[in-house]
Amino acid sequence: MAFGISRKQLNDWKKQAQTGQIAFITHYWLDDRFPECSTVTKVACADLDKLITWGERHGLKAEWIHQRDHYPHFDLLGERQRQILVKEGLEEQLNRLL
Predict the structure, then answer these.
(1) Domain range for 47
(2) Percent share of the chain, pLDDT over 90
(3) What does pTM read for this prediction?
(4) Which of 13, 19, 54, 92 measures 20 to 30 Å from 71, CA to CA?
(5) pLDDT for the residue 2
(6) Each residue of 82-95: b (16+ CB within 10 Å) or e?
(7) If 0-12 CB within 10 Å is exposed, 13-18 middle and 19+ buried, where does residue 67 land?
(8) Distance of alpha carbon 69 from the chain centroid
């Protein structure tokens, strides 16, 4: 279950991803499989090769990409989420939810 983002933020993320940009969106998230995590960052890009290359730079495997809803994306959780957001200069996405 996702919450903590506006419709505009979601639409902006979708537009960026659809136009071949690496798009980030972080929101609150509850999932019984990951009780220690309260947020997730979705990193999407319609250009699958570009997304795979981006993921490889961060130690992410192509097979971890979720391919649904026309927005192929990685889900970033926990410490890896924080590390990648810091490397990308986007830690405010996470900090605004803490």
Answers:
(1) 2-95
(2) 78
(3) 0.92
(4) 92
(5) 62
(6) bebbeeeeeeebbe
(7) exposed
(8) 14
Higher pLDDT, 4 or 89: 89
In the block, tokens 């136009």 appear at 19
Distance CA 19, CA 32 (A): 33
The amino acid at residue 34 is F
Q: Measure Cα distances from 26 to 13, 43, 78 in Å.
A: 10, 9, 12
User: Binning pLDDT at 50, 70 and 90, where does residue 48 land?
Assistant: very high
Distance CA 55, CA 62 (A): 7
What is the number of residues in the chain? 98
For 34-60, what is the mean pLDDT? 96
Distance CA 1, CA 48 (A): 25
